[in-house]
Design a protein that fits this description.
This protein is of the alpha/beta class. 57% of the residues lie in helices and 12% in strands. α1 packs across α3, α3 runs antiparallel to α4 and α5 packs across α6.
Amino acid sequence: MIWVIDTSALIRLFIPDGPLHPEIEVAFNRASSGIDVVLAPQLLLVEAASVLLRKRRRGELSSQELSELMQAMTSLPIRFCEHETLILSSCVLAETHGLTAYDALYLALAEQHGARLMTCDLALDKVAHHLGLT
């Protein structure tokens, strides 16, 4: 199985402020064993860092916790993909479904690889379900 993980699902894996995607732990366990593949656009780590920095600035995380979380995230078995081949299709998806270019990038990657999307973003999940990517 091929999966695409978005920032909401990645953050939720480490900061449980709501329900996890139901298959995220299985997907990562299987990816660690080489059975499944978890993909993400390179944007994932920048978005995750932005979320964690925002939490740090609000006093929800210490500097050490921020550093440890980023290290843990970068150690996951995620294969990062370039954006260039996804830009046109992500713009079409964003325009068609009223999404940000950022969110549409994850959908475009999932479509490109025939993958399933792991997200905790309800609006994005709804579009992914409509497109058969869940």
